Amino acid sequence: MRRYLLDTTPLTAYLQSRPAMVGLAQPWIRRREAATSILVYGECLEYLKGFADFPQRHAQLRRLLRAVAPISLDAAVMERYADLRRRLRPPHGPGLVGDVDTLITATALEHDLTLVTTDGDFERVPDLRLILLDRRTFQPVNR
Question: Is the bond into 90 cis (omega within 30 degrees of 0)?
Answer without folding.
Answer: no
